[in-house]
Specification:
Number of strands: 15
InterPro entries: BCAA_transport, Leu-bd, Peripla_BP_I
Number of helices: 14
Shape: elongated
CATH class of the largest domain: Alpha Beta
CATH architecture of the largest domain: 3-Layer(aba) Sandwich
Distance between the termini: 77 Å
Family: Belongs to the leucine-binding protein family.
Protein name: ABC transporter substrate-binding protein
Structural class: alpha/beta
Keywords: Amino-acid transport, Signal, Transport
Strand content: 15-25%
Organism: Bradyrhizobium symbiodeficiens
Helix content: 40-55%
CATH topology of the largest domain: Rossmann fold
Order of helices and strands: HEHEEHEHHEEHEHEHEHEHEHHHHEEEE
Strand order of the largest sheet: 2-3-1-4-5-6
Number of domains: 2
Length: about 375
């Protein structure tokens, strides 16, 4: 009888061992091509530092290009889930793509860590958005240190110039709201395309209005264009930029003329200039050291940091999720969702993450400080 019982136990172990040893599959859905490719490829670089094993489970990172297109993002997510049974998705890069994948993510009961910045992706947390998290700050987080500096320095009038798309439109609203809240009169709100080679007409209108300050709502190399042409036209007021200006070739293109622009500064970019007591300084310095050792001096950026942090969150959440079920199961996916929602005090490259049932942003105002470009380097303003 004992012989047969032993054989039965062995059979049970053989049956359950493959399920217990299943790999954790992480889908990575980013813009390798299309208009957002520069951002998406930086994010993909950031995913190259993910853990290879968690709690004895191998982790597979499965990448697909969403081509900066929302339809392609949905098709790619379905392919990742149906073909590889992913347990969680990191991405997409773009805001439209991130909104588009919410429905299939809810259908599959699949947790998503989007890398897009818009707060509406995760708030309010409801039956659908309970599956969506992000590792980026909100527009109002970016605007707060900028407008606090304006108010402190007596700025009474402001002009905006930004991209003529959803990014620029979002900043038009934030700029108008924050200006009103801080007693600042908005004199102009000009737009330009990311591919434009001149903004002289818009700049001439701004210079004629003679505001105390100008806010450039743009990112990467295209953000350099308004600043250079403002300098060319002799504008001497204060110039502010958004977080996107700390990415790409902005510093290279503006050179010495970029010095003095004020921006929201993330630890992922300016950790070395933060005070030692900053809660994310050590983690951000570690990210910068690892990233620049692989991709070269000065290559650090916020977008790579967002992806790097997303994999850090998965690493922290997975051990608790494994108690709910094995990888490839609905129980494990729900376990990951729940475990991420319960994460507190996780220091990453972009700040300290504190999620909750009603907060799937994780970062708060402490993730950004006022920064300035000085001699080609982004530094915190103390």
């Amino acid at each position: 009888m004992l012989k047969y019982a032993g054989a039965a136990c062995l059979a049970i172990r053989l049956l359950v061992t493959p399920a217990l040893a299943a790999d954790i599959n992480v889908g990575i859905l980013l813009s390798a091509t299309g208009p957002a490719a520069a951002i998406g490829n930086a994010e993909r670089n950031g995913t190259s530092f993910g853990a290879t094993e968690i709690a004895g489970r191998k982790i597979n990172y499965l990448f697909l290009d969403e081509a900066s297109d929302s339809t392609a993002a949905v098709a790619a997510l379905r392919k990742l889930f149906q073909g590889s049974q992913i347990d969680i998705l990191v991405g997409p890069t773009t805001t439209p793509g991130s909104f588009a994948v919410i429905d299939p993510a809810v259908e599959y009961r699949l947790p998503v860590i989007t890398l897009a910045p818009v707060n509406a992706l995760v708030a309010p947390v409801d039956a659908r958005k309970r599956w969506i998290f992000k590792t980026t700050t909100n527009d109002d987080h970016e605007a707060t240190p900028l407008f606090a500096h304006m108010k402190k320095n007596g700025v009474k009038t402001l002009a905006l110039i930004g991209f003529g798309d959803s990014y620029g439109d979002a900043w038009s609203k934030v700029g108008a709201d924050m200006s009103a809240a801080n007693g600042i009169k908005l004199l102009a709100d000009e737009k330009y395309a990311r591919t434009d080679t001149t903004v002289s007409g818009q700049v001439l209108k701004i210079v004629a209005a003679n505001p105390d300050a100008v806010l450039i709502a743009a990112s990467g190399a295209p953000a350099a264009l308004p600043l250079l042409q403002l300098r060319e036209k002799g504008y001497e007021g204060k110039v502010y930029g958004t977080l996107g200006a700390t990415f790409g070739d902005f510093r290279k293109l503006t050179g010495a003329q970029g010095d003095g622009i004020f921006v929201p500064l993330s630890p992922a970019v300016g950790a070395a200039s933060l005070p030692d007591e900053h809660p994310a300084k050590r983690a951000a310095l570690e990210f910068i050291q690892r990233y620049e050792a692989k991709f070269g001096p000065g290559s650090r950026n916020i977008f790579a940091g967002s992806a790097y942090d997303a994999l850090l969150l998965i690493e922290r959440a997975a051990p608790a999720a494994l108690k709910a079920g094995g990888p490839g199961t609905a129980e494990f996916r729900e376990g990951l969702r729940s475990a991420i929602e319960e994460l507190k005090g996780v220091a990453g490259s972009r700040g300290v993450y504190n999620y909750g049932a009603n907060d799937h942003t994780g970062l708060d105002q402490s993730a950004l400080t006022l920064g300035r470009l000085e001699k080609g380097e982004w530094v915190a303003v103390h």
